[in-house]
Design brief:
By secondary structure, the protein is an alpha+beta fold. The chain folds into 2 domains: 100 residues, no CATH class; 113 residues, 2-Layer Sandwich (CRO Repressor), CATH 3.30.240.20. Helices cover 43% and strands 13% of the residues. A 4-stranded antiparallel sheet has the order 2-1-3-4, with no helix packed on it. Strand 1 and strand 2 form a beta hairpin. 27% of the residues are buried. The structure holds zinc ion.
Length: 230
């Protein structure tokens, strides 16, 4: 049996030629909707640049659908690519020239750690889950915040870490689960403790309740001062 191709059906699927301009328009709108949605989810949820994800989402089905859905034509799918690439170029052009729009579209970095504790004043830690942050820090080789001079959540969703030299490492909040989960309400013996929430570290004498001076949290974790093993 010879392979017979219905070229019109292959190119257009079940649509008419008049549908093609509409595809461009629809694609542009879906690009904007995806962009807004990804921004709303935020970089911590998407774990990558907003732009890259929008491209993957919008182009994904356009590339896949005509490959195995009989009624989806190749031309409409190709026009989706044209529209999305154009939109991408346009938004890139505009945001490269306008800092405000760039922050609006792609997001801005947030300071995560400053001077060996979480920068609670500059980033709302409530929005950021401790377990995820700790995971990111551990993946960067951080054992406790006393090793970290500064850390940022970049617009791309990645975390960048700047370490203190070994001889400048101080006591800090451990980010390993075993140590961080051992939280204390009551300090029974004198020692150096870190606030389980913000990482504020200090010597505390035995006391029943001791709210953190920075964030008012009352749970404490024994600080550690290990240097990094390289
Ligand atoms: Zn605190």
């Amino acid at each position: 049996m010879l392979l017979q191709i219905d070229w019109r059906f292959l190119l257009l699927g079940e649509e008419e030629w008049s549908f093609l301009p509409e595809v461009l328009f629809r694609s542009a709108i879906m690009f904007i909707i995806s962009l807004v949605a990804m921004r709303a989810i935020g970089r911590r949820g998407t774990k990558q640049g907003v732009f890259e994800l929008v491209l993957i989402v919008t182009l994904g089905s356009a590339a896949g659908d005509p490959a195995f859905y009989k009624n989806v034509g190749i031309l409409p799918a190709t026009l989706v690519f044209v529209a999305i690439v154009l939109m991408y170029k346009i938004v890139n052009y505009i945001t490269a020239r306008n800092k405000y729009l760039d922050d609006l579209v792609e997001g801005k970095y947030a300071r995560l750690v400053k001077d060996c504790k979480f920068a609670v004043e500059s980033c709302k830690l409530d929005d950021l889950r401790h377990d995820e942050l700790f995971e990111d820090l551990r993946l960067k080789g951080v054992m406790h915040l006393g090793q970290v001079e500064a850390a940022y959540i970049e617009a791309s969703g990645q975390v960048s870490v700047f370490f203190l030299p070994d001889d400048k490492v101080v006591h800090g909040l451990p980010v390993t689960p075993e140590l961080h989960e051992a939280q204390l309400d009551e300090i029974k013996e004198k020692g150096i403790y870190s606030c389980a929430y913000c990482g504020h570290t200090k010597e505390i004498k035995p006391i029943k309740h001791h709210p953190c001076e920075i964030c008012k949290n009352e749970k404490w974790v024994r600080s550690i001062k290990d240097i990094r093993v390289k």
